[in-house]
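Please decode residue identities from the backbone states below.
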């Protein structure tokens, strides 16, 4: 039986972006969705964002759509670039079904955290919280395999969360409205909770 060889370095990064040649369509569709929703304009944003009053009125779809709609084109592009980076770094760490559950858990953790704990947050939107959950799950997979990159990324993620807790948003995260930083923490917790129940793919597959 032929053993899969680890793929590392620049070639490994390119292979991850390609998604083994069979899953790159998922990245393309996800990026297209983010930008297409943004093209709907302000009315679309208002109709799809997390809105506490609207949720109380029964508009539960907002718990899902809030994570794909963004404040403006700049916000959407930044999150689209973040998604592409997370894909390049971690797409091979889990199977497609596992990634779906990780995304679902991160979104659910964000929604629950905002609803039950951050009751003063009247509205929220953007994919950054879920992207933090993706990073946490990917970092956990690398740590389980004993990779140094996992340790370095774990330190970076913990340092980022600590900075946001004590000092606020990072200097380059500029936005016209305050960033809901707790969404990043909730996303990390949700992504980790799901990933802890899963076995990551072996390196090189």
């Amino acid at each position: 039986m032929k053993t899969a060889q680890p793929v590392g370095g620049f070639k490994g990064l390119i292979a991850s972006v390609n998604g083994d040649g069979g899953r790159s369509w998922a990245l393309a569709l996800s990026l297209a969705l983010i930008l297409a929703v943004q093209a709907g304009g302000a009315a679309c944003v208002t109709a799809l964002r997390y809105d506490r009053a609207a949720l109380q009125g029964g508009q539960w779809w907002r718990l899902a759509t809030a994570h794909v709609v963004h404040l403006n084109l700049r916000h959407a592009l930044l999150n689209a670039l973040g998604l592409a980076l997370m894909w390049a770094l971690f797409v091979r760490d889990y199977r497609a079904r596992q990634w779906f559950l990780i995304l679902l858990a991160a979104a659910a953790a964000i929604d629950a955290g905002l609803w039950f704990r951050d009751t003063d947050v009247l509205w929220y939107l953007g994919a950054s919280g879920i992207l933090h959950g993706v990073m946490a799950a990917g970092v956990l997979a690398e740590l389980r395999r004993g990779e140094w990159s996992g340790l370095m990324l774990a330190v970076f993620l913990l340092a980022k969360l600590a900075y946001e807790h004590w000092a606020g948003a990072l200097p380059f995260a500029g936005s016209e409205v305050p960033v809901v930083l707790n969404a990043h923490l909730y996303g990390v917790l949700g992504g980790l909770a799901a990933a802890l129940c899963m076995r990551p793919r072996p390196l090189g597959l």
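Observation: The chain has ten helices and two strands.
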